[in-house]
Design brief:
mainly alpha; 5% strand; two-stranded antiparallel ribbon; 3-stranded antiparallel sheet; 66% helix
Length: 527
């Protein structure tokens, strides 16, 4: 009798899951039918939306089947989901509409010129681009698109083109080149194939997206635990937007996730005292990636290097002679480069401002801006700025980190969609029964990394971008905090709240449903 009861309860749960899935797909079909009825006059847009909806439905069905059979794997699912959503975002967010994308595209184009042996020209102390005429003439529009304008945009794929090179007034940023390797290769391939301007630019985006997806897939594969959390963060609308764009935030986000995964995988080996050849390879990769973070984003993420420094401190106490020698060599090389980066930071940024109590003129607005010395000299003003920033900007940081106001198109997500992603992140960060994500010391380490990185980014934008008369930090968006979001969410884990692995397993379906709603709003509000 007891066995029959267990069978009945098991079948009842399966029926409930099937009913829930059926209602979900019915809702998606109803939403899609309503949307197509409103926008039926645009055949191109209906085609794009239909393919996107069918793709998300297919992904939901595949996820449901693999979860039910207990065969779902986060690092195997992400390449398909991330690449598909990235392509959908790429189609619906025209080139140049992602914040700062033109400047990043021109940097990638400059690297493409170097690959092809084409020299750019200098003038007035700046480096200007040589471009194909059709690339230079490509219509730049970073505001709201109408349906007719969107159709005209896609007609650019069939535009005539030539290989005539012209001098332009587009300048090249003097920043690191390595974040643009993938996008420059895509641009180079498009130019070698004699593709039109739009096709060439989209190919550069696609190459960058592929690298982004590959790196995050490797991070998910390396993570010893907590894959649902990183998977959910990697599928936020803002994460996908940055991943498919030319912005070097794509590189920063992907490699910060990789650093996080490498660090936790190394911690597992250190705890078990098993150091195979793979351990030293992962440590070397973590060292190289962390050193690249020393200078990225004006040293804004330098404190993330504390993770690899912590591993070296652990190795310092090893008793094996071979391990001590290897650890010493790696530690010494790392410390030398890290100290050099900190010294450059101090000499180039902090020291001049420490002795300057006056304000400075901001180049972008030609108004008075803050200096570090000014903030130290007027503590009351500094406290007032901090208060105003927390009061007025915290909600803005949160919404734009999830995906609100995507691009310069100002696409506003429904608050319920943002709340849905918030709940998904909270569930993903909860402790699974019988598992522990981090111990107390690692939590403290993550806390200080998150706190100081948040402070450094805000101070950097305050000094470099914020006018004094505004009395708060401006120009900062939530996307700057995506690299440290996994660390911050790991702090939410507590022994008081646990969740079953079966419940957490259905997170991918919830995230895909939220992406479906995001897509509907993106396409309605973009045009």
């Amino acid at each position: 009798m007891k066995k029959l009861k267990e069978i009945f309860e098991e079948n009842l749960m399966e029926k409930k899951k099937l009913w829930a899935l059926g209602l979900l797909l019915s809702f998606m079909a109803f939403w899609s039918a309503c949307w197509l009825g409103v926008h039926l006059y645009s055949k191109l847009y209906c085609l794009i939306y239909s393919v996107a909806v069918l793709g998300i439905v297919a992904l939901i069905l595949i996820c449901f089947k693999t979860i039910k059979e207990k065969k779902f794997s986060y690092h195997k699912a992400y390449p398909f989901i991330g690449l598909f959503l990235g392509v959908v975002y790429c189609i619906n967010l025209p080139v140049y509409t992602v914040p700062d994308e033109p400047a990043h595209l021109w940097k990638a184009y400059h690297m493409s010129n170097q690959i092809l042996g084409i020299e750019d020209y200098e003038g007035d102390g700046k480096l200007y681009l040589m471009m194909r005429r059709e690339d230079d003439d490509f219509a730049v529009k970073a505001e709201d698109y109408t349906l007719s304008e969107f159709s005209e945009y896609w007609k650019e794929t069939n535009a005539t083109h030539s290989e005539e090179m012209v001098k332009t007034q587009k300048t090249v940023m003097h920043i690191e080149s390595y974040p643009y390797i993938a996008s420059s290769l895509g641009l180079t391939l498009g130019r070698l194939l004699h593709l039109s301007a739009l096709k060439t630019f989209l190919l550069g985006r696609f190459f960058n997206l592929c690298l982004f997806v590959v790196i995050i897939t490797i991070a998910l594969w390396l993570l010893p635990y907590g894959q649902p959390l990183l998977f959910t963060v990697a599928l936020l609308p803002m994460t996908i937007q940055e991943g498919m764009s030319y912005a070097y935030d794509s590189w920063v986000i992907a490699h910060s996730f990789l650093m996080f995964a490498l660090f936790l995988s190394l911690q597992k080996d250190v705890a078990s005292k098993e150091k195979t050849k793979s351990f030293w390879i992962r440590l070397a990769v973590l060292t190289v990636v962390s050193l690249l973070f020393v200078t990225i984003k004006s040293h804004g993420y330098i404190l993330m290097c504390a993770m690899v420094a912590f591993v070296y401190l652990q190795l310092f106490f090893e008793r094996t002679k071979v391990e001590k020698r290897i650890g010493f060599c790696l530690r010494l090389s790392y410390i030398v480069v890290l100290c050099g980066g900190i010294l450059a930071l101090a000499l180039g940024f902090f020291v001049p401002d420490l002795f300057s109590y006056s304000s400075k003129t901001l180049e972008w607005s030609q108004t008075s801006g803050y200096t570090l010395g000014y903030l130290l000299h007027f503590p009351k003003e500094t406290i007032h700025v901090i208060y105003n920033t927390v009061k007025n900007q915290f909600d803005y940081y949160h919404r734009t980190m999830i995906g609100d106001l995507m691009g310069w198109l100002e696409i506003s997500l429904n608050p319920l969609v943002i709340l849905g992603f918030d709940l998904a992140l909270i569930v993903a960060s909860m402790k699974e029964k019988g598992k522990s994500l981090t111990d107390g010391f690692l939590k403290r380490l993550f806390f200080w990394i998150v706190l100081f990185t948040f402070a450094v980014i805000n101070v950097g934008m305050l000094i470099s971008w914020s006018p004094i008369e505004v009395h708060q930090v401006v120009g900062l968006q939530g996307r700057y905090f995506l690299p440290i979001l996994p660390l911050a969410l790991y702090l939410l884990e507590t022994d008081r709240v646990e969740i079953s692995a079966d419940t957490k397993a259905y997170l991918p379906i919830g995230v895909l449903l939220l992406q479906f709603l995001t897509l509907g709003q993106m396409m309605c509000l973009t045009l």
